[in-house]
Structures are given as structure tokens and as C-alpha cells.
């Protein structure tokens, strides 16, 4: 949610930006093949130990690649920054040693939930079945939620806290990823990843959806 204000000199209602996304995407479409920005963004939402209404965000976009290429770029960037700033790829935080010199783990969201919650969403065929499993496991959901939404709720409830070493969680459900390209080989899932370490989400990325018909259908949904 944005902060809304009024520009007196122009008598115009304005909003502070919530992300760096839109103009970077225009630059990619316009022909610049790699772009990034480090800048301030503003979200009129909650405050806690990991969220502030005003914060610094880095976003980058690259043409002619997909989410696998972006995972490689992200992993190499963390490793390079740690080496340059700290002189080592091994970092101790809150008494936990994290090694960014090793290849980052990669796991699908379905496999992560299967590992830590003991529920295989590949074996669940309907929204009603997913809701029944959620009730059984005491995971709260809303009436409009579908199977993919509930998979994500299971991930947040049972998995995130266990992801201490750098781990890419991939292949999110389509219900929570409206701007993301579908996986061609798995119905209901998309080419998206989030990087976790120390139980925290460090970044979110995906192969951009560039099919206008598919995008219109997602927005209608």
C-alpha cells in the first residue's frame, strides 16, 4: 500500500513509489539489456524488526535469461560482495555460521513443504482437499484461497524458519505469482524463486511473463 500525498504547487494527488520496478521494465523493453537501481521505496504497511515503511531496495533486470540465470547472478553477487567487503565468504550471525562459498541449495516449494511439513501437494488434486489438509494441520486460511495459496501458507508456517544456510526456493504456485511466466512442464506453477538465509527472505525474482493474453487472463482472475 502506498503513502498518498498532495503536491500543492501542481494541485495534484501523488503517491510515494512502493518499488523500483516499472521504470526499469520500461528500460528493458526499450532496449537496455541490463539495468539496476538501488533506491528508496515506501510501503504504508506494518512495522516490525524486519520491516520498515521506508527502506532501500535493489532491483535488477536482465534480458535474454530466465530465473535460473538470475539465481546464478544472485548467488555470485552475494559471494562477490562478501569477499570484497569481509575478505571471506564465511559469515557468523547470531552464532550461526553461513558459508556463501559453497553452492547455494535449490529446492522447489513443493519439496520444501514435503520435507518439513510432511505434506505432498503434488498428491493433492483439488482446492477442497488442500483446505481439508490445512484444517488437519491447523493452518489458517481464507475462504477464497486455492490450493496454491494454501501451499504458500504451509511454506510460511513450517519451512521458512529452517532455511538457515543460503537456499533458493523455486517454482511457486501461480495463484501468488500474477506477473510470472508459467512452468512449461508443470501445470499450476511458475518460474519464480526466493532466496532464504537465517530464516529470512533475502530476495524475490522470476522469469517475466511476456505473453499479453496470459497476462490479461491473470488480471481478470
Mean pLDDT: 95
Order of helices and strands: EEHEEHEEEHHHEEEH
Structural class: alpha+beta
Report the count of strand segments: 10
Indicate the radius of gyration in whole angstroms: 19 Å
- Strands ordered across the widest β-sheet: 7-8-9-10
Helix content: 25-40%
Count up the helices. 6
Query: What is the CA-CA span between the terminal residues?
Result: 20 Å
- Estimate the global geometry from the Cα principal axes: globular
Q: Tell me the β content.
A: 15-25%
Would you identify the regions where 5 or more consecutive residues have pLDDT less than 50? none
Largest sheet: 4 strands, mixed
Give me a quick take on this structure.
The chain has 221 residues and is an alpha+beta fold. It has helices at 21-29, 67-86, 109-117, 127-136, 147-158, 212-220; strands at 4-7, 12-15, 34-42, 54-62, 90-93, 96-99, 105-108, 167-170, 192-197, 200-206.
Description:
Helix content is 31%, strand content 25%. The radius of gyration is 19 Å and the shape is globular. By secondary structure, the protein is α+β, with helices and mostly antiparallel strands. It has a 4-stranded mixed β-sheet with strand order 7-8-9-10. The chain has a two-stranded antiparallel sheet with strand order 1-2. The protein has a two-stranded antiparallel ribbon with strand order 3-4. The model has no long low-confidence stretch (mean pLDDT 95).
Furnish the topology, listing elements before pairings.
Elements (H helix, E strand, L loop, with lengths): L3 E4 L4 E4 L5 H9 L4 E9 L11 E9 L4 H20 L3 E4 L2 E4 L5 E4 H9 L9 H10 L10 H12 L8 E4 L21 E6 L2 E7 L5 H9 L1
Parallel strand pairs: 7-8
Antiparallel strand pairs: 1-2, 3-4, 5-6, 8-9, 9-10
Helix pairs in contact: 3-5, 4-5
